[in-house]
Amino acid sequence: EKTKSGIGAKGIIATLLVCFSLLGLIMATCYALPSYLSLRAARKAFYEQNYAEALHRFHGNKLNASDEILCKKATVLHALALSKEQYEIYNAQGMKTEAIHALFEGYKVCLDKKAQANQYGITEEWNLYREHFLTVLESECSVSETVADLICEMKPLEYTIVVDNLAEGLAFDAVTLDTLLGDTGLETDKPEE
User: Where are the alpha helices (DSSP H) in the chain?
Assistant: First the structure.
């Protein structure tokens, strides 16, 4: 009596099914798991107020509606946080002119992002950044919100002169600005009151 040693058709089919099942499991794990983990890390970073990390993790992933909103919120808040960070870096380095410029740029970003902050429901966070910029401008340069609005709307030359004067410790004065611009032979557009 001889026995056949070999794998029958049923054995081959069972082996192929196991192989394809494992392949499917490996592919699903390789494609779905990293995306899931990245989105999970992005949400965690957002709630920890690490907006740069959140944006990095959201980028390149397919976002659902909730994640899309979080990504848009992170974009707005990251722009504000970046402006604040720039001011802190320049200030720590003793670069007064650049620090004051960063404050005004941060305030401009606040003004630009107001509608988006309202739309995405982050007005409280937006207002904290806005108040920070205005408080520092008031304490460091004696610039009120009204004056900050005026300075932010100036032409580049006027703006540069004002920022340089503020960095030197001089108070903002529209008359002095007109005099300086008169010395250069340039005209200034005064806002109508």
Answer: 9-47, 51-58, 65-92, 96-120, 123-141, 145-152, 156-167, 174-184
